[in-house]
Amino acid sequence: MHAKARQFLLVAALLLLPGAFAQTQISIGLFPDLDSHVNAVLEQFQAENPDIKVEVRVLQHGDHHTALVTNLATGSGAADVVAIDVGFIARFVADGGLVDLNAAPYNASQYQDLFAEYAWLQSSTTDGRLIAMPTDLGPGVMFYRRDRFEQVGANIDDVIADWNSYVEFGRQVTRDTDGDGKVDVFLIADASDVARAIMRSNIAAGDGVFFDAAGNALVESDRFKEAFRIAKEIRDAGLDARIGSWTNEWYEAFKRGTVATQLSGAWLLGHLQNWMAPETAGMWGASDLPNGIYGSWGGSFYGIPEQSQNKEAAWKLVQFLTTRPDIQLAAFERIGAFPAVTSTYGDALFDEEIPFLAGQKARQLFARVAQNIEGRATNPGDQIAEEIVNSALSQVLDEGRSIDEALAEAQRLISRRAR
Hints:
Number of strands: 8
Strand content: 5-15%
Helix content: 40-55%
Radius of gyration: 24 Å
Largest sheet: 8 strands, mixed
Shape: globular
């Protein structure tokens, strides 16, 4: 037989073999900045998994989660792998629609010890399910403008010693700097950020943020009263700029140095230096949160919708993006996404000086904070409770309602809705 004929028959035979050259097509739904990292490492994933091809879908943060809520509710339209901001975890715990990754064949609990405990618990439920795998963390820190501190002769360690010192610094730094009769430097963008930091810290053993182990609402506790009191003191004294997060005014405040401090997750560093305020390099520092508290401020996860028809391939991608130290470190370098895998904290990257923070080795601070945050499993009622508490906080800050009255009503509403 002619050589070309034999070659043709061989190729034809191979093509007829079951599964020959078969490739599974999966999709991953992302929001910025995760897409730039995922796109950068997909070549490596597909080289290691040549039978899987990945389509990347990207929507803005709010649009992504709005669409995902609809997709999971209707049972169609979701990607095979979906990114989830921690702020939406409670909703998906309550509403369902995501695979329990602790169940077979995933058995994700085999990886639990890789991760910061609190991140693992954030996507865990009180009945033992795991609805998503952690990929990056938001250890809570305070970013501050060094120049604003210098203008009033303030020392960062003194300012964060306790909440009274922080508020007193606010009284010094909040001022009219250009003499036009208008205050143009404030302590913080929004007093409610202070309340949220306090509400999520110093939680008693066995309790969650909003509920105790028995499912009773906790929002009339001293923890919530203190959070509301300090936020109200800041608001009443005119120390916050009353600027909401993720607005153009918020971005402009960072560029102009309108706010002297911002409580946030470590991830804010990446946003500041990459697109929010790159021209302010060297003007910022990072510290612990005031009053010695440790708290989580954000984080991202990857889940697999029940509706996915390619769960095996989707799980391989989730494992690749979450459990691999090299991939976690690549995300940290590329987009400032702080790793959820704790073994990365010994990498030389953590000892590097950060030019944007005037040479501060802030990654060591981020790692220490991450390892000191206590974990809390997510209660299905957390989403409703958070909405009610935020409404109560707005009533106190914006409408002058008394703290005790607002929290008493919040307690009643939460208890009723939880039942």
